[in-house]
Amino acid sequence: MPFPSAFSFDSSVKGFIALDALNFEKVSKEKGSTVIGIAVLDLKIFAEQDNMTAAIKLDLDGKLDKENNIFEEAYATYKGVPNMRFSLGKGVVRFQNLHWGAIENSYQDGGSVIGSDNQYRKISRKAFVSASYGGRSLGFINQFTLWGDSTQLFSDQNGKLSFISSGTSTQKTITGYRTEEVTAFDTNKQLGLANKFEYFVNNSLKFSTGQYYYRGRLGDAKPNYAFDIGASYESSLLEFWMDAIYGHSAKLPYESFTTKNKYEYFLQLGAEYFLNEKWSVIGNTEGLYIKDQQHTYSTFVEDGITYIPTSQQNEKSGALYRIFTYKIETALQYKLTKSAQITYGALYEKKRTKRNGIKNLSFVRDVRNANAEAYKLAASISFWF
Amino acid sequence: MPKKTPHFYFFFLFMTVLLSCAHETPKGTAARYTASDDCVVNGEYHAYFEQVEKCLEKEHGK
Predict the structure, then answer these.
(1) pLDDT, tens digit, for every residue of A82-108?
(2) Which of A26, A101, A185, A312 fits a 20 to 30 Å CA distance from B31?
(3) What pLDDT digit, counting tens, does each position of A118-141 carry?
(4) What's the ipTM?
């Protein structure tokens, strides 16, 4: 006799597309350029059966040169316990209160014409396991995540890191560490923790707070940590958003975007005022202050090989960078349909960098557009389904 | 850009928020945000997929 069973299966595909219809960007003395193309193109596939759901998100506008980089998220969720959910897979680690600006993405998701230098950005493509408790009906949601990077530093059987170097058999320069792509992270090599608590005062007002911790366990890696507070208000007439982050990060001397000690402070304030059913006006401003102490590089001998710093490493050795970047944006938004809008707006952005207290330098190693201004005029179309 | 421009910008942003709050009327959820009768989402990129996921859960639970 066959075992009686009943299945309730549902699936759907949802997407968000933003097209730069006609943008004009100019950075300081560079010649202005017109930009036309895709700003955002994301598709997410949801599948649900009984108490299990699965989701796969494809980031089609991202850099797809790495294998499987198209999958920004791929996770499964169990919802069999009331008000609780358990997720496992690859995806976004939540601790911030992310919000798009007026015509440009937030600094926390790489939205900058001039180029921002912040470490704390949207944390995506991470291997994670998470548990959340709560819901809007309870007035709060708390989500705790244990996570790891999909790229780990490679170490030999003695736990020693391996350099990428060039030169002769007795004299070399180091340009990085060997890394390995992993689908599941090893807690002996790295550990990430994150928590996000959202408190719903009512249907319109929400506060959030988040904490972030990450430590690579190889070499002399120091812990990275950050704290976030955010608020959102939404009514028929006005939407308001705020997010603030304080964070510290540290990396090993030869890692990409390395820093010995980087302290950063981020603040975003924005509002959208609805003039009528079709038109709204948006204002958004973000500020970012970074204090970045660089590693000191010197010649050393290991296993009979003399390692000499490169000219770039010598140039920034022991330097202290102080970088202040801000942008102000404003836009008019017109609702074409219930799921499409067109945005016209302008952005002004400025970056000031001091190297060891010296201002107005035309070039600072590893700081893009170190002392510059930027403008952007934008007309973009967004469509979601 | 003149140095005072950012200050004026913050001033106008603050005044806009202040005036808006003072003139607000309780109309409930804006109809302009409704993508379907059962699903309320807005066109904000970072919130969109989270809102959609909640909508799908609601629809599936019916």
Answers:
(1) 999 999 999 999 999 999 999 999 999
(2) A101
(3) 999 999 989 999 999 999 889 999
(4) 0.85
Tokens of A83: 């008000």
B18 touches chain A (CB under 8 A): no
Instruction: Sheet with A305-307: list strands edge to edge.
Output: A163-167, A171-177, A305-307, A300-302
- The C-alpha atoms of residue A125 and residue A18 are separated, in whole angstroms, by 21
**Residue from A7, A61, A57 nearest A39 by CA:** A61
- B61 interface with A at CB cutoff 8 Å: no
Q: Which residue of B has its CA nearest to A108?
A: B46
CA B8 to chain CA centroid, Å, is 24
